[in-house]
Amino acid sequence: MNDNFERDFSEQEIIRREKYQKLVREGRDPFEITVFDRTHVINQLIENYSNFSKEELANNKDQISTAGRIRLFREAGKKAIFANIQDQNSIIQIYVREDEVGEEEFKYFQNLDLGDIIGVKGTMMKTDHGELTIRVKKALLLSKALKPLPDKHLGIADIEEKYRRRYVDLIVNPETKKTFINRSKIIRTIQNFLDQKGYMEVETPILHSLSGGAAAKPFATHYNALDSQFYLRIATELHLKRCIVGGFEGVYEIGRIFRNEGLSTRHNPEFTSIELYVAYKDMYFLMDLCEEVIRTCAIAVNGKTTLSYGGYDLDLGKPFKRWHMVDAIKEVTGVDFWKEITYEEAKNIAQKHNVKVENHHFSVGHIINLFYEEFVEEKIIEPTFVYGHPREISPLAKANPKDPRFTERYELFIVNREYANCFSELNNPIDQFERFLDQIKEARQGNDEANDMDIDFVEALEYGMPPTAGIGIGIDRLVMLLTGSESIKDVLLFPQMKPRG
Hints:
Layout: H1 11-25, H2 42-49, H3 54-58, E1 64-75, E2 80-86, E3 91-97, H4 98-101, H5 103-110, E4 117-126, E5 132-143, H6 159-164, H7 166-172, H8 174-196, E6 200-201, E7 207-208, E8 220-223, E9 228-232, H9 237-245, E10 250-258, E11 270-279, H10 283-302, E12 306-309, E13 312-315, E14 321-324, H11 325-333, H12 343-352, H13 364-376, E15 384-387, E16 409-414, E17 417-424, H14 429-444, H15 455-462, E18 468-474, H16 475-483
Parallel strand pairs: 3-5, 6-10, 14-15
Antiparallel strand pairs: 1-2, 1-4, 2-3, 4-5, 7-9, 8-9, 10-11, 11-18, 12-13, 15-16, 16-17, 17-18
């Protein structure tokens, strides 16, 4: 561990620290201030006073107070200064005159820096150009910015710094702030939508004694009090289905999921998903609900269902395409996996199409999935439900009663990316037990994403779970889609980053 915390300050930082020490000596330490009462936030001032004329505001004696960060200084002669201050949602101009605040207070204001947070009291006015402005009677420094903000025109030049110092990005880039306001709006919209349907939001454990609920490599940790290895959850599925066993008929959870995988523009090891489980329904019911949720979120954020993403124009208001995985492979490659074939035959077909089959635990179903990932995914642009996944890659989905090689499962793809994963849930405890055994065999053959045997979940199913449909939707990717963000880092406030070199 490096205990050397010596720091080098730039010339500007040194000057700001000297200004702060001067304030301390004068008894004006801003960091000792604990509260500043605002009569209005800036949005309210703009809403309340924008329609007044210059003359009407000149006769208006309303005393107001607000606060914000200084973003701009502009001197108006030697005895007056214009500045802009910014709070969470808006920016407003302020006007400070020496003959109104006094010589000492005017010098105090002149000595402030861009980035400082101030409280102001005064009245509202309009300039000769008609700009709504606060005529300051009193200004108070509430927090000294000891570091300068980036140039307001250049912003943060280093994209890595944008993510590492998100707090600075939020200050200087209104589009970044808007993205995260919309992220919150999307989550609230989903919650309100599901609540109105009568479904209940619940919370389930983040630490699991077993790894299960999805095909993913978990993060492992040691639980000291139990002297046992635990895992950060890779899904909320198995606990939510226990709730259905317990008698709840519609439950959902929005929460963090952890998968020990790579970093990319599409993947972060810590991400947010929503999972919903509804009793007495199947995956087709959740196809309709999924469409409705996404359309509702699009309208909440953008006021419409049309958008552009990844260079494509999309209309989320149209019915989403429904495409069986085997039909999709046949349409794109000409290979027909509807015919029953042996593993060796499937492997030979894969070799002819340069599809690598390297893992010992693979079966025909795995090869079908390889073909889909290799040839089909990249061609999906319009919102498409791809359904009928092979049984081998869907250990928690109900088998199709007409062709048990495939399951009642779908994934939603838009512009080459997966947004949702849905099952008609497997509720046969005998079948579930056998599939967990198959997963154990795969793990022994090298599949580090295979599920553990969860006997408690099997026993829960033995008490009886009604026919149930379940869906997981990636919140981060949905936010990316609806805000036009190309990287998952753009929609995570504090994404995981590689250590600085």
